[in-house]
Amino acid sequence: MNSNYEIKDISLAAEGRKKINWVSQHMPVLNTIKEQFIKEKPFRNKRIAISVHLEAKTAYLALVMRSGGAEVAVTGSNPYSTKDEVTAALAEEGVKVYAQYGVSDNKFRYYLNRVLDIKPHLIIDDGAELVSIVSTERKELQRDVLGAAEETTSGVIRLQALGREGQLAFPVIRVNDAYMKYLFDNRYGTGQSVWDAIMRTTNLNIAGKTVVVIGYGWCGKGISKRDLEDLAVEKKSEVRKNIDEYILKDGRRIYLLAQGTLVNISAGDGHPVEIMDLSFALQALSIKYINDHYKELENKLYKVPEEIDQQVARLMLEASGV
Q1: Is 243 exposed, middle or buried (0-12, 13-18, 19+ CB in 10 A)?
Q2: Which candidate, 25, 97, 94, places its Cα nearest to that of 55?
Q3: Which ranges in the chain belong to alpha helices (H)?
Q4: Which end of the chain is more exposed for a tag (fewer CB within 10 A), N or C?
Q5: How far does Cα 244 stand from its chain's mean position?
Q6: Quick check: 150 and 173 in contact, CB under 8 A?
Q7: Rounded to an integer, what distance in angstroms lies between the CA atom of residue 304 and that of residue 295?
Q8: What CA–CA distance (Å, rounded) separates 191 from 219?
Q9: Contact status, residue 264 vs residue 193, Cβ threshold 8 Å
Q10: How far apart are the C-alpha atoms of 243 and 267, rounded to whole Å?
Q11: Among 51-65, 149-163, 191-205, 300-314, where is mean pLDDT lowest?
Q12: Cross-strand pairs, 115
C-alpha cells in the first residue's frame, strides 16, 4: 500500500485529470491567486490539511495551495460526495489523499486522521471535521496549527460550541460568513446545484410538482434528519442509483435521494464551477492571511477580513470584463 494515498483505484486518474483540467479553465479568480502563489511561495515549508467535499473543484484548490509551496494532504468531508476518479488524479499528481466513495463512518474517521498525520500548520475545513478532532481528540497537534478556515454554516456552529467550551486552540476564519460566499455560494450555488442533482437523479420534470422547502435561510438551513424506519416502513429497496424507495404500511411511498445526505454533491457535481471559484478564492486568501498574521490573532472565530472580501469581488469583476 502506498503511504501517500489510500483511494479506490489509481487507474481512474485519467478521467479525474480531465475533470480537474476542465474546472481549472473556469476558475479565473483562483487562477489569478495561483499565479501570485507560484511567484511568492507563501506556504513554503508549511503543511496544509484539507477536508472538503472531494470532487474536481476541491482538487484544484488543493493544487493551488501546493503551488504556494505547501505540502498538502486531502480527504473528503462526506464519504458520499467523494469522486474516486478525482482522488486518483490527485494521487497521481503526488498529493497525499485519503478518501473513497461510500465508506463506513469508521473508515471516514480514519481518513480524517490520516490527513492530520502530516501535523498540519494550516487547515481548510468543511463542517469543522478536522478542527474538532484536533480540538478534542488529538490535542498534541495543536502546537503546530497556526489556524484554520471554515467553509460552511454547520461548521461554524460546531466551532462556536468549541469556543464556548474553551476548546478552540487557534484562530479560525469563518469563510462562510463572507459576503462573496453567502451572496453567491449559499444562494445561487445551492439553488442551481440542488435542482440539478434532483432532476439528474430522478429523471423527472420539475414543472408542476409541489415542493416544500424546510428551513429558509440562505441554504434552506435547518433541515432535520429522521430515520425513515420510524415511519412504519414495510419495505425498503434501491430503485435507481441514489434513490431508495420506502413503502409504508399504508401503501404510500417515500423516495430518499442520496442516502439523505447533501443531494447536490452526493448525487451531482455540487455548485457550479464559477461559484466555487469565489468560495475557494476566499479560502485560499484566508489561509494566507492566517499564515501571515497568526502571531497577531487570538484563539477565536474571525470574520473574513474586509480587504479579502473586496479583493475577491474585484478579481471577479476583472475576470468578467467589468
Answers
A1: middle
A2: 97
A3: 13-24, 28-40, 56-67, 84-92, 105-116, 129-136, 153-164, 179-181, 190-202, 263-266, 273-293, 306-319
A4: N
A5: 25
A6: yes
A7: 17
A8: 8
A9: yes
A10: 9
A11: 191-205
A12: none
Query: Cell 432535520 belongs to which residue?
Result: 224
Q: Per CATH, which fold does 5-182+271-319 belong to? A: Rossmann fold (3.40.50)
Q: Report how far residue 85's alpha carbon sits from residue 293's, in angstroms, rounded to the nearest whole number.
A: 36
The DSSP secondary structure of 153-211, one letter per residue, reads HHHHHHHHHHHHTT---S-EEEGGGSHHHIIIIIIIIHHHHHHHHHHHHH----TT---
C-alpha cell at 26: 473556469
At how many degrees (to 10) do helices 129-136 and 153-164 cross?
20
Cβ atoms of 41 and 11 within 8 Å: the answer is no
pTM: 0.83
Residue the block writes with cell 409541489: 210
Q: Given this model, what pLDDT does residue 198 score?
A: 76
| Cell reading at 309 | 472580501
Which cell numbers hold the place of 96?
Answer: 497525499
d(CA 30, CA 274): 10
Strands 253-257 and 47-51: unpaired
Amino acid (1-letter code) at residue 218 = W
pLDDT exceeds 70 at position 22? yes
Q: At what angle do helices 273-293 and 306-319 cross, to 10 degrees?
A: 140
Question: Per residue in 212-225, is it b (16+ CB within 10 Å) or e — as a string?
Answer: eeeeeeebeeeeee
User: Are 275 and 184 contacting, i.e. CB atoms less than 8 angstroms apart?
Assistant: yes
- Whether 267 shows a pLDDT value over 70: the answer reads no
Using the predicted structure, report yes or no on whether residue 289 has a pLDDT greater than 90: yes
Q: Where in the chain is the domain with CATH 3.40.50.1480?
A: 5-182+271-319
pLDDT band at 225 (very low <50, low <70, confident <90, very high): very low
Rounded CA gap, 62 and 73, in Å? 8
Strand-pairing partners, residue 238, are 244
